[in-house]
Amino acid sequence: MKTPETNTPETASLSRRTFIKTTTATAAGALLAGVPGGWAGGVYADDSPETSAIRFGIIALTDCAPIVMAHELGYFKKFGIESVVSKEASWAVIRDKLTLGENQATHMLIGMPFSSTMGLAGSPVKPMITPWVLNRNGQAITLNNKLKAAGVKKAADVKPLATKAKAAGDPLTFAMTFPPGTHAMWIRYWLASGGINPDRDVNLITIPPPQMVANMKVDKMDGFCVGEPWNNRAIEDGIGYTVVTTQQMWKDHPEKVCAFTEEFAAKNPRTVKAILKGLHLASVDLDKMENRPKFAEVISRPAYINCPPAIILERLMGKYDYGDGRSEQDPYYMIYSNRNANYPHQIYGKWWLSQFRRWGMVKEAPDYTGLPKRVLRSDIYLEAMKELGVKSSIAEEQKITLFDGEFDGKDPDKYARSFAINSMTT
Known about the structure:
Elements (H helix, E strand, L loop, with lengths): L8 H24 L20 E6 L6 H8 L2 H4 L3 E6 L3 H10 L4 E5 L2 H7 L9 E6 L5 E6 H5 L5 H13 L5 E4 L5 H12 L9 E4 L5 H6 L5 E5 L2 H7 L3 E6 H4 L6 E6 H6 L1 H18 L5 H8 L9 H8 L2 E3 L5 E3 L16 H13 L11 H6 L2 H11 L11 E3 L2 E3 L4 H6 L9
Parallel strand pairs: 1-2, 1-3, 6-7, 6-8
Antiparallel strand pairs: 3-10, 4-10, 5-8, 5-9, 11-12, 13-14
Helix pairs in contact: 2-13, 7-8, 13-18, 14-15
């Protein structure tokens, strides 16, 4: 009889594998007993996951959908993964549970594996990797009704209001979800494009995504940057409007990723590839627009997002009512598979590192080449897709085009220094 201490998913999995290997070897010996000497026969490698029980962390956002649907549709199970999906309270909890091994895979902002690998923003040094981009597009910056009444349509319109508020001793406050995360980079980049230093001219605070709307309702902030459905929820609740979407800042930008610790991925390569295969099948399904109403209903459930399906579905279908009289069918709505959405291009890492540098999160120039190679594991992505029979002839992107310029990745530190507004000290 197993004791509670030894009856863990890992030891149970090990025991099953040991049993299978032992019985398989015995059976093989019996079968080959009468075979003429010198006959080698064929040997089949075990392609099952090293660890079958996998706990996935998610945050209540529309872009958690590939993990949720791979779980709900049985795609993880198809490749030998017994999945559990755990909704977490914040991105800090997501990081900590992956670091501690409580979750083995996780929904994560693309900047977070870099910050953990580097030990930034209070993160313990814990190398992490991501071989899979979960989605592109679909985030936004939402401002409150006071700024709408003041006629704010672009970042430059905020500048005189921010100057006045700071002089009065009550600076404007903007929220993002995690200091080295994507939402922090979007809100910083947008404010700076209007002549505002986010570290000096306004207050920049951290709020978990599901709490954004509630905090704006009680007037805790003047604006926030977050993923859906919380921007659309603010409009539905009548407390704000979307001033800009992130796809208007950078079309088809990478957003969330599926991340693992480097240690776990090294010890469990077949497990990681099995997870990617399940994510691929779910992502392809998600990008069939006829499926999105049903999938919106699934991810809306309390165990996942806990939001009315209609609020999720509207922007998931590319229907954008900005809350200020503008509306459109946006061709760059959130995608999960189309246009090679899942491939982790090296230049993405270089751009994020340049923004860490720009905003003083690193004091010296980081390793702009080595860190992306270590974190953005396109080699694992390609191996998994090859095993799945998916043709992936993808050329590495050589440049990024943003709404105000281009990044070619040739000299990231020079690029970081090229911005008049920055928080660099060296």
